[in-house]
């Protein structure tokens, strides 16, 4: 990551955290925290697309992180920070095992396995009494010193993790991920273990999803199996497609816009599932590269138009 991008990212994150500090209304603060968490989940989903796979098990890793954080805090009575990290590490550990077994498949086969894995994990929650069964877990509260500023913490942590993923993407390791997506045989020919590199990419995405799950538990204070169905992965895919997957800003823009519009749609009687489905269809038809791709296209068109006008004026002179 170059210095210009790094400094711009820190400025944007500081502005977002300052905005979060100004929010006094409880619902507005929670809405911003949900936007940050949604952006983090979508960014984790985008990170795994670097190896060319669509990880529909992302919802399962979010759920594993949420339950691990909730269990660590309410049952084991571990400190807040340790509980949150436990959520990320537990999801990453399961991600390593899941990826080692399933990443021998590709494309739609991997996607379907991820879908099935998410639903199996969700059903397991309902069978474990210590996790609250169908009712879920309650009383997952952040510490008192963060109670009124938890949105600021959620925005800050989400922003830092997204920046770290972008830094990895721009590193040598990130180039290996992209090389596997473009042609894994070329990467294999230079002596890189393609399978374990893909497992590493998935486990990083799982860790981020697990942290997002822990933040979800602390924001909502209550979690249940229904919160972590395959629909969560569908929503994350909508954020990614609507915002654009060619740049890390894309999933952030998509998450902010869709979470806000979804909250508005609740006043019209809900139907957010239909809302997200329509958003994906319209985006793929009208702007295949999402909002960020549309802005890049407009920027390029404007620059080309200016160049043509300048050339025309020079020729007339």
From TrEMBL:
The chain crosses the membrane at residues 30-49, 56-74, 80-101, 108-125, 145-168, 199-219, 274-295. One of its GO terms (cellular component) is plasma membrane. It is found in: Cell membrane. Keywords: Cell membrane, Membrane, Transmembrane, Transmembrane helix. One of its GO terms (molecular function) is branched-chain amino acid transmembrane transporter activity. CDD domains: TM_PBP1_LivM_like. This is Branched-chain amino acid ABC transporter permease.
């Amino acid at each position: 990551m170059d210095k210009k991008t790094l400094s711009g990212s820190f400025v944007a994150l500081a502005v977002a955290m300052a905005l979060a500090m100004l929010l006094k209304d409880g619902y507005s603060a929670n809405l911003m925290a949900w936007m940050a968490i949604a952006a983090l989940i979508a960014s984790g989903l985008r990170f795994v697309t670097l190896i060319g796979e669509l990880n529909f098990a992302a919802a399962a890793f979010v759920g594993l992180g949420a339950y691990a954080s909730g269990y660590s805090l309410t049952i084991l009575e571990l400190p807040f920070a340790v509980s949150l990290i436990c959520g990320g590490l537990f999801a990453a550990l399961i991600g390593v095992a899941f990826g080692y077994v399933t990443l021998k498949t590709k494309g739609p086969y991997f996607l379907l396995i991820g879908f099935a894995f998410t639903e199996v994990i969700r059903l397991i929650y309902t069978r474990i009494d210590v996790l609250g069964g169908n009712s879920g877990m309650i009383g997952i509260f952040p510490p008192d010193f963060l109670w009124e500023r938890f949105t600021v913490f959620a925005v800050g942590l989400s922003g830092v993790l997204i920046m770290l993923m972008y830094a990895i993407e721009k590193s040598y390791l990130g180039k290996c991920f992209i090389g596997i997506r473009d042609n894994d045989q070329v990467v294999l020919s230079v002596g890189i273990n393609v399978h374990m590199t893909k497992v590493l990419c998935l486990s990083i995405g799982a860790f981020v999803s697990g942290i997002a799950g822990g933040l979800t538990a602390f924001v909502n204070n209550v979690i249940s199996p229904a919160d972590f169905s395959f629909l969560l992965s569908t929503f994350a895919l909508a954020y990614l497609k609507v915002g654009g997957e060619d740049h890390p800003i894309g999933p952030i823009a998509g998450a902010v816009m869709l979470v806000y519009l979804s909250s508005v749609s609740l006043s019209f009687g809900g139907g957010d599932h239909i809302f997200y489905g329509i958003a994906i269809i319209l985006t793929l038809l009208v702007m295949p590269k999402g909002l960020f791709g549309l802005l890049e296209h407009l920027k390029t068109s404007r620059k080309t138009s200016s160049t043509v006008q300048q050339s025309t004026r020079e020729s007339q002179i």
